[in-house]
Design a protein that fits this description.
The protein is mainly α. The protein has helices at residues 2-32, 37-65, 67-84, 91-105, 108-121, 127-152, 157-172, 195-209, 212-224, 229-249, 251-279, 283-290, 293-309, 316-346, 350-359, 365-371.
Length: 380
């Protein structure tokens, strides 16, 4: 059990570190290459939108050739794409290379989550604690990345991303495997037929999508307000500390609350977090607000996992791929593109749109609570 969790955790840590640097500092590198805020939004948004088309196919390809093969190939191509970025000349070249990199990297999260859930079902690892490996690496890469950026400059960014994806490719080769589930005699009910899944997907799209401006423009916004790179790295890392704490020690609370209450908590926190972020650039206040990342991201992620756990095992892979594509990639890509247009004109006020989007998920909570099967009900 410990060995399987460690191997999956190490793989998560490697590609989460690459993702952390991409999220926090790649926009800074783009700006240094002369891209406008609207162009940065287009580059980042296109990568997310393309995932909508390809993520469902990753699951089918993994079934055909093996999950480890797809994870290795995805990480290797993502590493190559990042390494090519410094040679790119002009907006179109950067857009093309970033799109290829984003598409290849999009295989990693849904396939690893599907693997971790399958291993957790076999009691070969504990999902929350294994997922925490990725969160800790994200935190460490963000914090150290801010300091490194201040010392070495933004030119380091694509090479660091390439290095972590290359490490991920190597670790993919030693991931544990799972036995395929025997085909069910009756799988008449498609994934979309489950109302709990549809509502969880919509709530996830709103709450996780509301992080779009944060992913794309928080670093640039805080830099413009005079906050040093090292402090920005620590602010982002602090949110991950809260996330890690929930993943490691929050299992009793998560099981007690259940999916609907977790979604309500995430939506309410989204409304508060992004409203404050829109108006405040004072570091102590931002430090307090960043703790809400445990609610806006982690609570909704765990709510989704609890809902997926109630679906038939034969639907797990399809449900995970759809949740990744339509619950995360599509809304995040669209909102990053829109944020790029708004940020250029209104600056930090773009976070008010994020507050409205994430907070609107509160309207879904009553229906989600009614749609959940008894097995997903919160514990008394």
């Amino acid at each position: 059990m410990a060995r399987d969790g460690l191997r999956v955790g190490q793989f998560l840590a490697a590609f989460f570190a690459a993702g952390a640097i991409s999220t926090a500092y790649l926009p800074v590198w783009f700006a240094g290459r002369g891209l406008s805020s609207a162009e940065i939004g287009q580059v980042l948004g296109l990568g997310f939108l393309l995932r909508v088309a390809v993520v469902p196919g990753w699951g089918r390809l993994a079934d055909a050739v093996g999950g480890r093969t797809v994870l290795f190939a995805g990480a290797a191509v993502a590493a190559g794409g990042a390494a090519l970025l410094p040679a790119a000349q002009g907006f179109r070249a950067i857009l093309l290379i970033s799109a290829v990199q984003g598409v290849s990297a999009s295989a990693l999260t849904p396939l690893t989550d599907a693997l971790a859930l399958a291993l957790a079902a076999d009691r070969r690892l504990e999902y929350g604690r294994t997922r925490a490996f990725g969160s800790v690496a994200y935190m460490a890469a963000t914090a150290s990345g801010g300091a490194s950026l201040g010392l070495l400059g933004a030119g380091l960014v694509p090479w660091a991303i390439a290095g972590f994806y290359a490490l991920s490719a190597g670790l993919a080769l030693v991931l544990p495997g799972v036995e395929a589930s025997p085909p069910a005699k009756r799988i008449q009910q498609g994934t979309w037929r489950f109302q709990s899944f549809r509502l969880a997907l919509l709530a996830t799209a709103l709450i996780q999508g509301a992080h779009a401006a944060y992913y794309a423009f928080a670093t640039l916004h805080w830099r413009a307000a005079g906050i040093p790179d090292g402090a920005i790295g620590l602010l982002i890392a602090e949110g991950i500390v809260a996330e890690v704490a929930l993943f490691i020690w929050g299992r009793p609370l998560v099981e007690r609350l259940g999916p609907a209450r977790l979604t309500a908590l995430a939506a309410g926190a989204s409304l508060l977090r992004w409203t404050v972020t829109a108006f405040v650039t004072d570091v102590p206040v931002l430090a307090a607000v960043q703790l809400l990342h445990a609610a806006t991201f982690a609570c909704q992620h765990l709510s989704t996992m609890l809902v997926l756990r109630t679906l038939p095992a034969q639907r797990a892979g399809t449900a995970q791929a759809l949740m990744s594509a339509l619950g995360f990639s599509a809304p995040t890509g669209l909102l990053i593109w829109l944020s790029g247009l708004i940020y250029g004109a209104a600056g930090g006020l773009v976070f008010l749109l994020m507050a409205a989007v994430g907070g609107s998920a509160l309207l879904i909570v009553p229906a989600l609570a009614r749609a959940l099967p008894p097995a997903a009900a919160p514990r008394p």
